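ok here's the first one, seq then struct tokens
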Amino acid sequence: MSVDDRAVVWFDIDNTLYSASSRISHAMGERIHAYFVRLGLSHEEASELHLRYYTQYGLALRGLTRHHDIGNVTFDSQLSSYPHTLLDPLEFDRQCDGSLPLEDMITFDPNTCKLFEDLDRSKVRVWGLTNAYRPHAERVLRILNLTDLIDGLVYCDYQVKDFSCKPEPEFYKMAMKQAGISDPSKCYFVDDNRGNIDGARAQNWAKCAHFCEKGLEAMEGGRTKQISNERAAGAEGTDGVDIVTTLDELRDITRLQNSLQHLKQTQTVLQEYVDAESPEDVDPEITKALEENTTVMYAPCICDWTPVDWTSKIAVVLKKNGF
């Protein structure tokens, strides 16, 4: 069996493949709060637990299954009077994600579709990576006309006891296993949640983009907040993370990365030539090209520079010198 060594571009789904302006997060948050209340909690208790579990686990249901044995019909002192039918995680999904009128809230976006179509499939595969259950994720992809442009989908399987979710390390490891990829440097990730991005970077995923519609509102853990690129207290490191406000900006990141890769390749050729020649025999044009190339490569912000393409000049000089 052949191994597919192409890189994987992972896309989150909710609030990433569509805009937060759809207010789906608000509708979802209201349904999750109502579910907590139907478990027998007061509105205050429901609000507190919803926020706590979302903050701690990245998913409210993850906290319920972990601390209240949702799915195992084991009573908890804090949840003493809830109906047994509500204990099923699939019932949670039906009452929350499953009841969302998605067809009235989001629609096909030709720009997003074109972005997916333009990804070079000879070099990358495209997978979805979501904390939602499969029916919701597939429903969103179908509405957005992206189903046939996704190679695979990793989701939270609510039927599995103690399922994992972003940003838990196990979820990213499971995702790589399902995609059949072992090298984290070949994983690229786009998500609207900075905690999920940090979780991916902690697993050494090569390049991550934080989709940040700064200024819009979204609901997280039952609380409405303005979207920003602020990080959780104690979060470490920023290397390998770009911030984009539209998915189309990913094209600019790709172009920049390709330019940088070209510069690195050029640098190698130039340096090999210089190392192979005695100082007095090095062509001045090559020396100048090496200096210019180095300046651009190691500029504090490469985005402020226009890469210099010395390819044709280098080829002529190297050929002239028999290199």
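and now the second one, same deal
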Amino acid sequence: MKIMVAIKRVVDYAVKIRVKSDKIGLEEALRIKESGLASEVIAVSVGPSQCVDTLRTGLAMGADRAIHVEASATLYPLSAIDDDCNQTGQMVAGLLNWPQGTFASKVVLDKEKEVATVEREVDGGLETLCLDLPAVITTDLRLNQPRYATLPNIMKAKSKVIKKFTPQELNVDIKSDLEVVQVTEPPKRKAGVIVSSVDELIDKLKNEAHVI
């Protein structure tokens, strides 16, 4: 079994603004491989040339190979730590017609039965899904703590070949299907009013705020 991990350049939430890679999905893939349940981990990133640095970080962590799809626009990742749009995993699963498990806080693979058990947090507690493989799984912050790449592996990653494609070579049209019509700030909150009696409060709530 092979695991493809989508990684993205994101803002590091733990420090002053700086760009790093979103590593949680990659860390889980590496752990699955180390347990003997996968043969190869492939890191994939879509975006500008700076994505190469992100992919080299993935190689230094332990990914077997990396693929860079060069594009001026970046596709949103699974549930990235910067914008948390939570859309790419679902779209990929829909296009591939594969089962999906989102916001995974625990992943267990059964290689013999070819299924993945995904535990995820929902409003009412925990939900457990059983997915036939292949499947698309998106990650939650609680899934794991990514490892640090060692200096020797960082140096080795600098010399590894990253395979590059363009969207045209993959017969993909990356034009946006969405148009931002307008972006406006929410209305400013009005100053509070001090009332002199309960009757005046009720009158304002009824005739001005129209909430009763």
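notes on #2: Strands lie at 2-6, 9-11, 19-21, 40-47, 65-70, 100-110, 115-122, 125-132, 136-139, 162-165. Confidence is low (pLDDT under 50) at residues 73-79.
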